[in-house]
Amino acid sequence: MLIADTRLEWSVARWNKLDPGLKDLAVMASAAAIGCSWCMDFGYWESRRRGLSHEKLRDVPRWRDSEVYTPLERDVLEYSEAMTATPPAVEDELVERLRRCLGEAALVELTAMVAVENLRSRMNSALGLSSQGFKDRCEIPERAGA
């Protein structure tokens, strides 16, 4: 299992069709929707290290009420949440907007990235992993209307 997971993560690290900032937002939105505090903690640290702003990372769980995102970032966040829902609730109109803005290859990578984060977050949550201090404080605020 460890070898297979390591190979998957090495492969994922080489994907390069989707903008890294959009990829980070997608991963964080999926982790927040699942409620994986370890993933939020580690994801915050990794994303900050790559240059994503504190404000954008902080507001992921409440992105609908935040003013810090571009329209494309909002679509990525919406897509990630909709794909993470059980059952998935992705609307065709959203997919088409993303396809027009990102292109086919980046849309496929976005979809695969959210699927990978679902695997990570669900596994970590089921095994009881929690934040480890990568970020000084990692709380997942409740989403509006939740």
Please name the CATH architecture: Up-down Bundle
How many strands, which pairing sense, and closed or not: the largest β-sheet? Answer: none
What's the total number of strands? 0
CATH H level: which superfamily? Answer: AhpD-like
Q: What structural class should be given to the helix and strand makeup? A: mainly alpha
Helix tally equals: 7
CATH fold title: AhpD-like
Mean model confidence by pLDDT: 90
How far the N terminus sits from the C terminus, by CA atoms, comes to 35 Å
Spans where pLDDT lies below 50 across 5 or more residues: 137-143
Outline: globular
* SSE pattern, N- to C-terminal: HHHHHHH
| Residue share in β-strands | under 5%
What is the CATH top level name?
Mainly Alpha
Radius of gyration over all CA atoms, rounded:
14 Å
Number of domains: 1
* Fraction in helix: 55-70%
Summarize the structure.
The protein is an all-alpha fold and 146 residues long.
Description:
By secondary structure, the chain is mainly α. The protein has a single domain, classed as AhpD-like, CATH 1.20.1290. 64% of the residues lie in helices and 0% in strands. The protein contains 7 helices and no strands. The chain has helices spanning 2-14, 20-34, 37-49, 54-58, 71-84, 92-102, 104-126. α2 (20-34) packs antiparallel against α3, α5 packs across α6 (92-102) and α5 (71-84) crosses α7 (104-126). Residues 137-143 have low confidence and may be disordered.
